[in-house]
Amino acid sequence: MIIGKEHWDNKTLEYDLEKYNWPGWALSVIQEKFPQIKELETIHLVLEPSEIVRVSQYIHQACNRLDFMQKFDEFAKEYVPSRIEGRRFLIQRQGTLRVVIPDQARAGRRLQFHQGVFVGNGRGCRTIWTPFTKCGGTNTMWIMGLDESRDITRRFLAQHWDLERFEDECLKHAWPVTLSPGQSHLFFQEHLHGNVNNEEGYTRVSLDMRILIEGEEYGRKVPGGFFRLPGDHEASKEANYSNATFVTYSGWESNWSRGIPLPMQRATIEDYCRKYNISYNDYQFENEHTWWQPSLEYFIKQRPTGIVLCSMFSLSDNVNRRNELLELALHHGVELHFANELCSLRSRQDLERIQTYVGWALPKKGALSWESGFEE
Question: Considering the entire predicted model, what is its pTM?
């Protein structure tokens, strides 16, 4: 049984544009970086495609600002619970800005057809697609029904289609979503969707935001990292640890971290350290095949100011051992910082939040629609 099917199966959400002026917010943020942009629809007349990538990245980071998080919390509280049967939910931490310029295919910017599961979204996610400009015809998202999406996905994977055939089959069933500011489109991760070449003559700008329902499937988009609790605004806070003693820690002792190479873990850690001006004394690591993480225990007992890990999901999958390490850090007054989740362990309240995230949902819950044993 799909939670809230009647509300998310290609449905339109009408929201209060005066109260939640997302287009105005986006334009004001973009103008911080590019003051020459006066309206979203004409971005293509002002910026080169390579600069538009910078616009998207800037908005992505702006979603971590306190004003946006508080406003989106309010928006979600008003419109989401009644559409998911009152279940608890997490909110996507940083939205994805889509800027579709005229003739975007010529610049290599056309979004191919896909479904959310293909890019790591679990079926417990729900997408809130919100255009900041008018959208319709060739400059909007094209989408198809759930049954057609599942059928085409099954055949695509079973018969190993090339991309051209896949796109052709999608276009036979897809239609353009026609919306104006003040409206959002709600859909599931299994809905196939994408873009056609924009021939409308003006730019379309939109924002993807998602929620994750408690107890459902998150795929590769982990709770606490890709998603945050409503009210969790730690990412907006500034900190300066320039005079503190820190070490960094990488490990491969959990199902989540086992396949992540050392350079990728360290790259995430480095970004976090730059954000909070953390200088560290050394790289540290866990010996492989030691699930109880004795090295991490040892580093905690050395009582540095803090230890920066790639993720809270780098901790042991053994719940008892994970909690022992977290309690040990609290006991010794050692801050544990989790770079992927942009949060830290400093207090008992932080511990409760971390335990909520790691126990929130499942990576996978049942067979996918193209696998044997699938049931609706």
Answer: 0.95
